[in-house]
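Structure tokens please, single chain.
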Amino acid sequence: MSDRDHQSLAVRPASTEDESTLFHWRNLPWVIELGASRGSVAHDQHHAWFAETLERQSRCLFIVDIDNQPAGMVRYDLVSKVSVEISIFLMPEFVGKGLGTQVFFRSIPLLLSWHRVDQIIARVLTTNQTSLRFFTRLGFVVDDQRSTADCIVLNRGLQDIPHSRPFLGQPKQKRQHK
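Here you go.
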């Protein structure tokens, strides 16, 4: 079996059973290094954040399962009526195999079933060239006006992504009856 031929790749809503896994991931050295806060979090802080996240109407959190094992996460935070900010990562053993792209596109229908949005924003530390290349390959465009010396801001519209939500993209043409 090649790296791309996993038994299954699924993106699912996070549940209470995922709290300890996410806490462990949150405090991994490479997550701390690439994260916005650049610091570890205590268990009680994470517990409060996680409980709020599951209840929060302005955030959705998804777990990535590969071969029925948690392998990463995708989080969308509503930043305006039509825009969300994305946070996404996979465990290192799954990076560079095209799985991140699959995860992104599989998360879009879940995102759109949660909230009607038409733009995704990504914030990437300037030192994180891997994430910058990832988002650029996905069609994100650097927003020079919102970027800073430490953080690159990228945007991507959803109009060209195939989906089952009728409110995005081109309006459907009415069928003419003969």
